[in-house]
């Protein structure tokens, strides 16, 4: 049986108040397009009861202690067989019929296909992938479909507790990997995730930037030189 286009991976821990709505938003999609994987961190609040309630529609699930959200995401990657992987938080929801919509634009030559997200307060976040990515995360993983071939060589760094998904996006940008932007809302996201911890987020951003400093500097210098020569010839044309 051929692999489905999408693997949807949800990581949960004590998410009894929100997980069922997340699961429903996935299972209401076209069932031929996806497989669903849930990695639970040994919840003790009844979350597992909700997972069991829907387990016949879940390709794989497990509830065991992990070393944090990115360790759990790595476990999900190991089980994923879809060509495109999306990570959906246990308090996030896919937009209705969104997998059918994204499926129209799939291009296996791309490494990343991404759209926008909307927060629970109604504010829309327009994802971008440009020079701003050198400074901060500009693509939310709840709106990002990663080509599974990326994960043949990449796993999330579990020593990074909040911003390891940014590290992946930064690597995609630095390596000039191919990506496509879709101007559609993929999911609704909760504002109160780990990355809302501002101080810890900034510390981890600094660590990631230090780790890739030479690559970032090289790219910035290269772009600065291109801009310099562009302006030089532009001015020559204006005044000649």
UniProtKB/TrEMBL annotation:
Residues 7-133 form the Glycosyltransferase 2-like domain. It comes from the Bacteria. Transmembrane segments: none annotated. CDD domains: GT_2_WfgS_like (cd06433). GO terms for molecular function: hexosyltransferase activity. Keywords: Transferase. This is Glycosyltransferase.
């Amino acid at each position: 049986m051929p692999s489905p286009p999408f693997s949807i991976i949800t990581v949960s821990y004590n998410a009894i108040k929100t997980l069922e709505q997340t699961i429903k938003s996935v299972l209401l999609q076209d069932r031929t397009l996806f497989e669903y994987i849930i990695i639970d961190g040994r919840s003790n609040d009844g979350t597992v009861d909700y997972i069991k309630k829907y387990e016949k529609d879940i390709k794989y699930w497990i509830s065991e202690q992990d070393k944090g959200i990115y360790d759990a995401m790595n476990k999900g990657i190991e089980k994923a067989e879809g060509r495109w992987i999306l990570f959906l938080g246990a308090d996030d929801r896919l937009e209705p019929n969104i997998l059918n919509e994204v499926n129209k634009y799939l291009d296996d030559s791309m490494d990343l296909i991404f759209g926008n997200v909307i927060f629970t307060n109604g504010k829309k976040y327009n994802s971008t992938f440009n020079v701003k990515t050198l400074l901060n995360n500009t693509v939310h993983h709840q709106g990002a479909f990663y080509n599974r071939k990326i994960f043949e060589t990449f796993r999330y760094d579990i020593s990074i507790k909040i911003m390891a998904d940014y590290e992946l996006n930064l690597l995609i940008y630095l390596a000039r990997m191919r990506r496509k932007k879709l101007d559609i809302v993929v999911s609704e996201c909760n504002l109160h995730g780990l990355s809302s911890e501002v101080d810890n987020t900034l510390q981890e951003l600094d660590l990631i930037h230090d780790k890739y400093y030479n690559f970032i500097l090289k790219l910035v210098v290269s772009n600065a030189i291109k801009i310099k020569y562009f302006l030089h010839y532009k001015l020559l044309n204006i005044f000649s």
